[in-house]
Specification:
Helix content: over 70%
Largest sheet: 2 strands, antiparallel
Strand order of the largest sheet: 1-2
Oligomer: single chain
Keywords: Coiled coil
Number of strands: 8
Number of domains: 4
Radius of gyration: 50 Å
Number of helices: 11
């Protein structure tokens, strides 16, 4: 080991044999990897595709790297073959053979044309490192493109098929571009998916999101942002079409319910108008709200809805029915509130009558029914409450006076004869 050359100490025969065995294994591993890269589906697709954008730029660079990689491998194989030939000259290699083998196995003995310079010199170990580097970057691009092509186009095609089914369904219920917003949405989704598929096929690397910190080939995932957005948009349209289909199925029942609600509102308003006349006749000095008539616009819209159903214009019927159902419920509520407001004076009179009779029954249970003062105040209140028109304010005061006297008597304020001169 005292003899040296530019590659370092001269290797002995055992070191040479071990180095040749290791380099042979590396040769086989590299060859297997290169052949797998050559046969990779992603590489074949990249070679046959019409590429654009970032994929076109990177593939041109990678193709040159793969060509250079094969050149490096051929040079490596030739150097290994030469070393094996020298070692195979004789069973016990001479010192001259060992010196030559040391330079070949450890020195920068391999000169390769190409790359950034006209030629480069490598040791076999450095050449292996360089090939591993080129292989890793080339495989990363191939695997990435293949991952995008394997994931996105198929999903886009499935979504496009669903889009076509939705378009047919939409057409069957009258949802068409230019006539319904959902029809316009379907056209926009169609254009976007067509453009997206073309871009994914021609520039797959533009639809790749790398995973931070990952060193594995193709570390990351396909970017499905545009696809996911269009899928959600299609789902929204599909729900709208389903709503239109539901309208087609139960339109007649909904129209019947609408007619019933509006009819009840009309009857309630008619009852309120009748009640208003009764209140004006029976109650004095009271402001009674005016009762409006039924809105004709709802009846007109109901007639339009029925016409839409006859003409099978479901896409127009759907929003109109939803609007009418809410308006009809509002109208019924307004009619009920109007009836309540109009009949409020009658309710007040009824409450006063009930209160007066309740106190009369109470004093009777205590043996005071014949008290002349109570009888006098009861008769006065009753005349006011059962006469027409009734002045509610005056009647309420009369009931209160009766209540107060009854409360005094029930509380033991004194016998009737003690108060004859003090009551009026």
């Amino acid at each position: 080991m005292g003899v040296t050359d530019p590659a370092g100490p001269v290797m002995d025969r055992d070191e040479v044999d071990r180095a040749l065995a290791r380099l042979g294994q590396e040769h086989e591993a590299i060859e297997t990897s290169l052949l797998a890269l050559q046969d990779h589906a992603g590489r074949r697709l990249l070679e046959g595709a019409r590429l654009t954008g970032v994929t076109q730029e990177r593939w041109q660079s990678t193709e040159a790297q793969i060509t250079l990689l094969w050149g490096y491998f051929d040079a490596y194989a030739a150097a290994l073959r030469s070393a094996r030939e020298i070692r195979g000259r004789r069973r016990w290699s001479s010192r001259e053979d060992l010196v030559e083998l040391t330079g070949l196995l450890r020195g920068e003995s391999v000169t390769v044309a190409g790359g950034d310079r006209l030629s480069e010199s490598f040791s076999l170990a450095a050449l292996v490192d360089r090939m591993n580097e080129l292989y890793a970057t080339s495989l990363d691009l191939v695997v990435t493109a293949d991952a995008v092509w394997s994931a996105l186009p198929a999903r886009i095609d499935l979504l496009a098929a669903e889009l076509q089914r939705t378009r047919s369904l939409a057409h069957s219920v009258g949802v068409r571009p230019g006539e319904h917003p959902a029809g316009d949405d379907l056209e926009q989704i169609t254009r976007t998916l067509t453009r997206l598929r073309e871009e994914v096929v021609s520039d797959p690397l533009a639809f790749w999101t790398p995973t931070a910190g990952s060193s594995a080939p193709g570390g990351g995932r396909p970017d499905t942002t545009v696809y996911d957005r269009e899928a959600r948009a299609l789902e929204d349209v599909r729900r709208e079409i389903d709503a239109v289909l539901t309208v087609r199925q139960d339109a007649e029942a909904r129209l019947i319910r609408l007619r019933d609600v509006l009819s009840r509102a009309d009857r309630t308003l008619a009852e309120a108008r009748t009640a208003r006349g009764e209140v004006l006749a029976k109650i004095a000095a009271t402001e009674v709200p005016v009762v409006s008539g039924p809105p004709t616009v709802l009846q007109e819209q109901l007639a339009t809805a029925a016409e839409y159903r006859r003409q099978a214009q479901w896409h127009r019927l759907s929003p109109l029915l939803e609007s009418l159902e809410q308006k009809a419920e509002d109208e019924l509520l307004r009619a009920r509130e109007s009836l309540t407001a109009v009949t409020a004076p009658l309710a007040v009179r009824a409450e006063l009558r009930g209160r007066l009779d309740a106190y009369k029954a109470k004093v009777a249970r205590h043996g005071l029914a014949e008290d002349p003062f109570l009888v006098e105040r009861y008769d006065a209140a009753r005349r006011m409450l059962w006469s027409a028109p009734c002045d509610l304010r005056v009647a309420e005061q009369a009931v209160l006076r009766y209540q107060q006297l009854a409360a005094e008597l029930l509380g033991g304020a004194g016998a009737p004869e003690d108060r004859k001169g003090g009551q009026s």
